[in-house]
């Protein structure tokens, strides 16, 4: 297909595709899907080989958020039955992080619900970062604490943070339909603050919130302009008890096209499959490794992921390898500025429940509420974490 040859050539040269080319990827048919994956896979392998970077989420503070992001189970008024707790102590967070590192994670993503940190919160997280760095040699730490005020990014950098995550989530045009308590411009400002402080910027999107193809292309083009080192691609987990709880509109094929389009537009950037991997890609997860070079290991912020061991087996079975701490994630032209990736305010995910006995096979496009499991283990509980 001419389109795919053009996109591969551009991806290898880091040349921006046209909007029409990006839209055409999203419009390809299921008959062309493997060709699309193969083409984007060439770009992925050119910049990242067969390496998969593992990231581990630690939810420092869960629920009780005053903001109203419609997709989020921690939002104001959420009736999702998630764990709710206030700040973990540095040693508790460090223990949770150590479990992820022992499971193969190279980066720990420290996430806290809320509009943004107070200066006292930054002190608290700084202590946590130091504890994690002391106990886990070579680990990268990304903070995700919401909107930053002046000087806070610099303080996190001084404390040893490598990266800061703040997602754009959706297009500027539709942002107001998803969240009313802060703006798209606020989000852009925080990503810029992280960049300016010398932190590796991580910013991504959430697909499946009812957006159009144009919205998806808009947000990915905006991300390319912001130039983060890593782009987490979340697939909405429609939590019951949130305004988007009925938005079951993704298929595994659609998810693969979205990841392929993201790879073509951001060819040399760490593209991470974030929340919703198990819920929406399901048995197609290994194909997605040909597009993304990074995933979260184990559980998400408020929901459970598949067992960490299953993540590792999937990577090996698909012919990929877990990226080691001695390997540099980003291509050389990017690596000098930072290390590249992070968690996600709103990164959510599930546990793949077994389908037992004579249960009817799910139909394509049917809501898969059976795959959404609220997290009940790890940080904030007495149970061992999944890593
Ligand atoms: S995404 Fe972050 S800011 Fe928005 S409601 Fe959830 S925790 Fe709060």
UniProtKB/TrEMBL annotation:
Report residues binding [4Fe-4S] cluster. 65, 69, 72
In this protein, which residues make up the domain named Radical SAM core? 47-277
Q: What class of enzyme is it?
A: transferase
Q: Where is the composition biased (Gly residues)?
A: 340-355
Region (Disordered) residue ranges read: 340-387
| Annotated GO MF terms | biotin synthase activity
| Pathway in which the depicted protein is active | Cofactor biosynthesis; biotin biosynthesis; biotin from 7,8-diaminononanoate: step 2/2
Instruction: Show the SUPFAM superfamilies listed in the entry.
Output: Radical SAM enzymes
EC numbers on record:
2.8.1.6
Query: Where does this protein have coiled-coil stretches?
Result: none
Alphabetically ordered keywords of this record: 2Fe-2S, 4Fe-4S, Biotin biosynthesis, Iron, Iron-sulfur, Metal-binding, S-adenosyl-L-methionine, Transferase
The cross-references to SMART domains, in alphabetical order and at most eight, read: BATS, Elp3
Free-text cofactor note: Binds 1 [2Fe-2S] cluster. The cluster is coordinated with 3 cysteines and 1 arginine.
Q: Which Gene3D superfamilies match?
A: Aldolase class I (3.20.20.70)
Query: Which reaction does this chain catalyze?
Result: (4R,5S)-dethiobiotin + (sulfur carrier)-SH + 2 reduced [2Fe-2S]-[ferredoxin] + 2 S-adenosyl-L-methionine = (sulfur carrier)-H + biotin + 2 5'-deoxyadenosine + 2 L-methionine + 2 oxidized [2Fe-2S]-[ferredoxin]
Q: How does it assemble?
A: Homodimer.
* Database matches in NCBIfam families: bioB
Q: What does this protein do?
A: Catalyzes the conversion of dethiobiotin (DTB) to biotin by the insertion of a sulfur atom into dethiobiotin via a radical-based mechanism.
Q: What is this protein called?
A: Biotin synthase
- Species of origin: Streptomyces olindensis
